[in-house]
Design goal:
four-stranded parallel sheet, 2 domains, about 325 residues, alpha/beta, Rossmann fold
Amino acid sequence: MKTLAIELSLLRELVIVGINSSEPDEVPITCTHYELGRRNKSGMISTIRSILRFRALIEKLKPRAIIVNCALAELFAVFLPKRIRIVVVEHVNPAWEGRKLLGGLIRPLIARRASKVTAVSDHLHFSHSCRPIDLVIPNAQDVNLIGARTYSNEYYKSMEVRSIAFIGRLVDPQKRPGLALRIAQLAQLPITFYGDGPEKFKLELEAKSLSTNVSFRGFVRSVWSEIPPDCLVIVPSLYEGDGLVATEAILLNRPVAVSDIPEFRRFSLKESAYISEVDMFVVNLKSNPSIESFIPPRELQVRLSSEREPKSLAVKWDALLSSI
């Protein structure tokens, strides 16, 4: 959303409020922003304090509307005065995963409060509620802001997969980093994990017993600049909302393999790029390690680049906010 915020702030006054403390983002914030500084999983008392700080900040700023972009933001928003219009963004199904009981309480409340409900992809629905999605607006992505080199298909000719990379939160059940480790082990390829999360300790213990070279880099700014062209990026998610790592790989013309789920089938990648069964995927990878088997189709890159162009999406958001 920060890529979008940069463009939207050129069309109207915009303020970003970060709730949780986090690693610095790939995309620098250029508009006015505030940080509440809540630590992730810091408990009920910390959350209540953050809700009070958030409410006080909103009372000070007096916005006409707010966009809530995650489950925690929805929780904070239900405590705001009713005069403030709320736009909810659905990013993933199931929403509120890991907090289903709380989500079952908050979602009906936020559904009644929301002026509009949007989604980042047309395969999503507004979970925990019968309310329909009002508008689908994809995530904005700009390869120039990613700041990584792109390679031509000609460059990849005769190149083979030499390593594997996993980018994202080390968390189950959604991201399944353990599945990426298993693929690397079976394929006898080195793997690098870019990201952090609760599964890191478990993965490190498992990696010690493997003959495969495994490294954990944590958060890395400009991560795509570190990934060599003969490295296969694996996105083995159990479910996805938009699949930003996969779409970044597509836009950058990088080799990528993804789980065989409907969210990724909409991209119509080459059949060799879908992981439907791990053992068979590894057999095919070892028998045909050509990088070209995992390069996304050119027409897909063109379509995604057009659909996710930040300026045009900012205009759509501006029109939506003007309508409420």
